[in-house]
Amino acid sequence: MMSLNFQAPKHEKLLMARKKNCTVRLGDVRKQYPESSIVWITTGKKYEVKKKLYTAFIDKVRVKKFSELTSADLGHQNPEINTTEGLRLDFEEIYKRRITMDDIVTVIYFSEVL
After folding, report:
1. Please, what sign has the CA dihedral across residues 96, 73, 27, 35?
2. How far apart are CA 57 and CA 52, in angstroms?
3. Nearby residues of 28 by Cβ (< 8 Å), 6 or more positions away
4. Which of 50, 44, 49 is nearest to 9 (CA)?
5. In this predicted structure, what is the pLDDT of residue 99?
6. Would you say 105 and 24 are in contact if contact means Cβ atoms under 8 Å apart?
7. Mean pLDDT in each 10-residue stretch from start to end of the chain (114 residues)?
8. Per-residue model confidence (pLDDT) at position 10
9. Among 20, 72, 86, 93, who pairs with 81 as Cys (CB 3.0-4.6 Å)?
10. Dihedral angle, C-alpha 69, 75, 76, 81, nearest 10 °
């Protein structure tokens, strides 16, 4: 079973409140997360124990430049971030590297399976 893991503690809160149903990942990860797949939504830092929150269905996967992210992408990724610049700065903190508006990202929309 594949998983979509979220490392930042703030994401666990959004996921548990069902306010987050999209994730933006650096690079083209379409092959790892094809549409109509079933995944576990998990949280936890790299190389540490993960916590399974729920099972989800991957509804839609799109690859685009960071600058092409829409307000819908941003709102579903994190309702507290409403600009691509805000998300870019957040990503630089998470990924510990410089992110540009030309970087390729994969937008993955998912919904909980009950």
Report:
1. positive
2. 15
3. 63, 104, 106
4. 44
5. 95
6. yes
7. 91 93 96 97 94 98 97 91 92 91 97 96
8. 85
9. 86
10. 90
Which of 62, 114, 65 is closest to 87 using CA atoms? Answer: 65
Q: Are the beta carbons of 17 and 58 closer than 8 angstroms?
A: no
Q: Write 71-79 long-range contacts (CB < 8 A, 24+).
A: 73/22, 73/24, 73/107, 76/20, 76/21, 76/22, 76/109, 77/20, 77/22, 77/23, 77/24, 77/107, 78/10, 78/11, 78/14, 78/20, 79/14, 79/19, 79/20
Token code pair at residue 39: 């995944």
| Structure tokens belonging to residue 35 | 């549409």
- Residue 7: both structure tokens together: 């490392």
Alpha helices of 43-101 — where are they, by DSSP H?
71-77, 84-95
pTM beyond 0.85, yes or no: yes
Residue 52 in tokens: 């399974």
